[in-house]
C-alpha cells in the first residue's frame, strides 16, 4: 500500500485537476480554430461588385452570383 500524507494528496489532486482542465482547454481551442477556418474558407468577397456570399464548393476560382466575375478564394482570416 502506498503511504501518502494529506498535503501530498491535496497537491496531487490540484495538479491532476489543473492538467485535466488544461487538456480540455487546448482541445476545445483546437476545435474552435478548425471550425473558424472552415467558416472563413466558405465566405467569398467579390472585388468587382463588393458583395459577400458563401460557397461551399472546393474550386479555387469562384463565379460571383451577382456580377459573374471570377474571384479567388480567400485564405485565412475574416473579412
Ligand atoms: Zn461580383
Plain-language structure description:
The protein has one domain (6-72). It has one helix and four strands. Helix content is 47%, strand content 15%. The strands form two sheets. A two-stranded antiparallel sheet has the order 1-2. It has one helix at residues 6-42, and strands at 43-45, 52-54, 61-63, 70-72. By secondary structure, the protein is α+β, with helices and mostly antiparallel strands. It starts with 5 loop residues before the first helix and ends in a 7-residue tail after the last strand. The structure holds zinc ion. Residues 46, 48-49, 51, 64, 66-67, 69 line the site of zinc ion (ZN).
SSE layout and pairings?
Blueprint: H1 6-42, E1 43-45, E2 52-54, E3 61-63, E4 70-72
Antiparallel strand pairs: 1-2, 3-4
The structure holds zinc ion.
**Uncertain spans:** none
Tally the helices: 1
Residue-averaged pLDDT = 87
Give the % helix.
Answer: 40-55%
Number of domain units? 1
- List cofactors, ions and other ligands: zinc ion
Largest sheet geometry = 2 strands, antiparallel
Tertiary shape: rod-shaped
Name the structural class.
alpha+beta
In percent terms, what proportion of residues is strand? 15-25%
The H-and-E topology, N to C, reads as HEEEE
Amino acid at each position: 500500500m502506498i503511504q501518502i500524507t494529506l498535503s501530498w494528496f491535496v497537491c496531487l489532486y490540484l495538479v491532476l485537476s489543473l492538467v485535466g482542465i488544461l487538456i480540455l482547454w487546448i482541445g476545445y481551442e483546437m476545435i474552435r480554430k478548425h471550425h473558424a477556418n472552415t467558416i472563413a474558407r466558405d465566405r467569398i468577397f467579390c472585388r468587382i461588385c463588393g458583395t459577400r456570399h458563401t460557397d461551399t464548393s472546393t474550386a479555387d476560382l469562384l463565379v460571383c452570383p451577382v456580377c459573374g466575375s471570377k474571384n479567388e478564394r480567400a485564405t485565412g482570416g475574416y473579412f
